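Q: I'm writing up a methods section and want to include an example of the input and output format. Could you take the sequence below and give the corresponding predicted structure tokens, formatted cleanly so I can copy it straight into the document?
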Amino acid sequence: MQARVFFATITGNNEDVADVIVAAFKAANVDVIKEDIQLIDPQDINKDETDIVVVVPYTFDNGSLPDEALDFYEDLADTDLSGMVYGVSGSGDDFYGDDFAVAIDKFEQQFEKTGAIKGASGVKVNLSPDQAATKALQDFTQSLIETAKSQDK
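A: Here is the clean output for your methods example:
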């Protein structure tokens, strides 16, 4: 099984989130690659080589998507990822109230257009992952793996 984790970060918090997810994949003996989202074109994701796609975006300002993830986000709507499992988790700042980590919700809505299968509900981390968030991210990753295993490829 192969997973790819695409992240965007300014402060390093989201890379910390991605690192927890990557470690959980590795602990489950899943081959995983962590990549900067701005270097990825969703249309180049090979369905024969990728079972699980995880996006780790941060949210800034009043619910804005990361600038470095905008091209990926926009291209995602026109990408066929049928049969792949996806998940979205990331950091935000609960100071922003209703706009807290809404980039996760926006990416989940965009993934729905691709034909991919939602493998787990997104995990919203306040700033950097603490012990509770780390456990939630590990459970998120395990759910992605279980969903991928249940799919006929």
